[in-house]
Design goal:
- It is globular and about 90 Å long.
- 44% of the residues are buried.
- α15 crosses α18.
- The strands form two sheets. The chain has a five-stranded mixed β-sheet.
- β1 and β2 form a beta hairpin.
- The protein contains 27 helices and seven strands.
- It starts with 15 loop residues before the first helix and ends in a 6-residue tail after the last helix.
- The protein is mainly α and 636 residues long.
- One of its GO terms (cellular component) is plasma membrane.
- In the N-terminal section; belongs to the NhaA Na(+)/H(+) (TC 2.A.33) antiporter family. Belongs to the NhaA Na(+)/H(+) (TC 2.A.33) antiporter family.
- This is Na(+)/H(+) antiporter NhaA.
- It is found in: Cell inner membrane; Cell membrane.
Length: 636
């Protein structure tokens, strides 16, 4: 089955699509790096000549001329940092970092994860000619690290990858500040003022409620151009714009309005109504999501690999390698990443957990922390960008050797860490990867046995909640998977109504019919009948189903006529709104929203994972704060 929830790409799941894109692009980037190394060693003349090719933009007497290498590093990489800013903002608005307390450990680990490698680099290069290039040793390439983690740590859950991303969500931000303040030369004040004014114009346009992307383009171009001539690396513009782009989930009211626009177009298919419907549909998505959809694939599959092709090429032979591995620049970069990054991540996680007595702790287990620390030694994009600003000649080549060597060694250490973890018994392996961090709950309100319609044992370790619409064909596709899951003894299933009358005109009446049957003790029998006969949900059909189930048809009909159970339906709709649900079917597993496919295989895997987490939760010792929340008299 290929059925998927309608909002599977909803930004309320801020990291899933990001992780898939970065994992897939890792191979493309690695191929680009290998191609650059081969090209630079087979025909170094043509490699250097291509990137020194001049490209000019001219408008009247105004001309902007830079070589191809600069257009890539300062031009296209602006879009890369735009994506970084968008992802950071989306994590704060919709991801786990919406609980600001969860940002404490990642923020501290991210900062220390930059300071320790820099200190290692400075100790090794103290007083030497390469000491000013300390910025090369500080920034993890999160995109490449995530991709390699997917390749090296097969079976590693998304939770570990999410932890890695949140730990280094500040990494690129700080690196950009360092580039702007330390590695920018001959800074001119007037262009910076122009860039700030252009950014202020963009913020004003956003505050005015303008959603058309074209309205922002002129100010963005002015901002980028002003920074380019100011001496500050213009990639800062991309980061600032990304951080300013709000992320939010589409609202049910907005979606219903769009349905009305499409009905108008269906009744009168004119170009004007087609344009209105298209714009209305696009406007239901947040600016963050729209920009992500446009630029993220280009950034991952084109811009970053092109950057790798333009920057990774170095001539390698025996004498050069001997020189490079005798250089403090190479060793400063290599040890900064291979030793400094894991030390920072593991040390910070352990230290904050101990100091806070468990109130602040990693969202993963010790194996997840270890693997995140080792893979954080993978650097490339920002490191090479800073290296090209800080070094020239042999020192630049030595820095590149250090960066590439660190990526290789860090990848090997990560593979070894997860290989050892996979040899552990199942329960210990699960705890090592997941830890005992309490997850954020997306479902509002929680399941109430007295109010909700529940199938399965009350003490089940896994609760599967579905918001559904009896006329929704996707709910019909999901039903066989749900029924197969109900064969699990340790699962309870909850149905909550979310009729979508703008697209399914009989859904509301069908929901009231299910509640009328519930009033006579036959909810689940009616639920099954309605999903089995989604094409026959008019009033006559519903009364016939009541008769088939042995219900009092007169009472049933009277309940429908008086809309006796409309309040119950509205209550479920309100809970859907509070939980950020706007489409059907939408599933929650132990309070966490499930994204992606709802076929038997995918749902079974998600339920199995939730059961493992629930088992950890039962076995995990409570922190002092958690114990007191259950029993005020509890002591450590």
């Amino acid at each position: 089955m290929s059925g998927r929830t309608i909002w599977k790409r909803n930004p309320a799941a801020p990291l899933r699509a990001f992780l898939r894109t970065e994992s897939g692009s890792a191979g493309v980037l690695v191929a680009a790096i290998v191609a650059a190394l081969l090209w630079a060693n087979i025909d170094p003349g043509s490699y250097e000549a291509l990137w020194r090719t001049q490209l000019s933009l001219r408008l009247g007497h105004l001309e902007l001329s830079r070589d191809l290498h600069t257009w890539i590093n300062s031009g296209l990489m602006t879009l890369f940092f735009l994506v970084v800013g968008l992802e950071t903002r989306r994590e704060f608005d919709l991801g786990d970092l919406r609980d600001r307390r969860r940002f404490v450990l990642p923020a501290v680990a991210g900062v220390i994860g930059m300071l320790i490698p820099v200190l290692i680099f400075l100790v090794i290069n103290h007083g030497g000619p390469g000491a000013h290039g300390w910025g090369v040793a500080m920034s993890t390439d999160t995109a490449l690290a995530l991709g390699l983690l997917a390749l090296l740590g097969r079976g590693v859950p998304d939770r570990v990858r999410i932890f890695l991303l949140t730990v280094f969500v500040v990494d690129d931000v700080i690196a950009l500040v360092v580039i702007a303040l330390v590695y920018s030369d001959d800074i001119k004040t007037t262009p910076i003022v122009v860039a700030v004014a252009a950014f202020a114009v963009m913020l004003a346009v956003r505050a005015a409620g303008v959603r058309r992307g074209a309205a922002y383009v002129p100010a963005a171009i002015v901002m980028w151009g002003a920074l380019l001539v100011s001496g500050v690396d213009p990639v800062v513009a991309g980061l600032a714009i990304g951080l300013a782009a709000f992320a939010y989930s589409p609202g049910r009211a907005e979606l219903e309005q769009v349905s009305g626009l499409f009905r108008s177009f269906r009744e009168q298919p004119t170009p004007k109504l087609a344009r209105t419907a298209s714009i209305g549909l696009a406007n239901t998505l947040s600016p963050n999501d729209r920009l992500q959809r446009i630029y993220h694939p280009w950034s991952s599959y084109v811009i970053v690999p092109l950057f790798g092709l333009a920057n990774a090429g170095i001539g390698i032979d025996g004498p050069f390698l001997a020189q490079a591995f005798a250089s403090p620049v190479t060793w400063g970069v290599l040890l900064g990443y291979v030793v400094g990054k894991p030390l920072a991540v593991i040390g910070t996680s352990a230290g904050l957990t101990w100091i806070s007595q468990g109130r602040i702790r990693p969202a993963v287990g010790w194996a997840g922390v270890l693997g995140s620390g080792t893979i954080a030694g993978v650097s490339f994009t920002v490191s090479l960008l800073i290296a090209s600003l800080a070094f020239t000649g042999d020192q630049l080549a030595e820095a590149k050797v250090g960066v590439l060597s660190a990526a290789i060694v860090s990848s090997a250490l990560t593979w070894a860490a997860f290989r050892l973890t996979n040899r552990l018994p199942r329960d210990r392996r699960t705890r090592a990867l997941f830890g005992d961090m309490t997850e954020l709950t997306d479902l509002v309100p929680d399941v109430d046995e007295k109010r909700d319609h529940v199938r399965g044992p009350a003490d089940a370790s896994v609760t599967l909640v579905q918001y559904g619409d009896f006329q929704c064909p996707y709910c019909g596709k999901a039903e066989p998977a749900v029924r197969e899951l109900l064969g699990h003894a340790d699962l309870r299933f909850v149905w909550r109504h979310l009729p979508l009358p703008d697209v399914h005109p009989q859904a509301r009446l069908a929901a009231e019919a299910a509640e009328a049957a519930a009033a006579q003790g036959k909810f689940w029998q009616m639920h099954d009948l309605l999903l089995d006969h989604q094409d026959k949900l008019n009033l006559t059909d519903l009364i016939r189903y009541a008769g088939d189930l042995g219900l009092d048809q007169e009472r049933f009909h009277d309940d429908l006529k008086r809309h006796a159970h409309a309040g119950r339906i509205e209550s479920d709709i309100d809970s859907a709104d509070d939980s950020g649900v706007s489409g059907t079917p939408t599933f929650f597993i132990n309070g966490r929203r499930h994204y992606g496919a709802y076929d038997v295989t995918t749902l079974t895997a998600a339920v199995r994972m939730a059961r493992a987490r629930a088992r950890l939760g039962r076995d995990a010792p409570a922190t002092r704060e958690e114990a007191r929340s259950v029993d005020p008299t509890a002591r450590r």
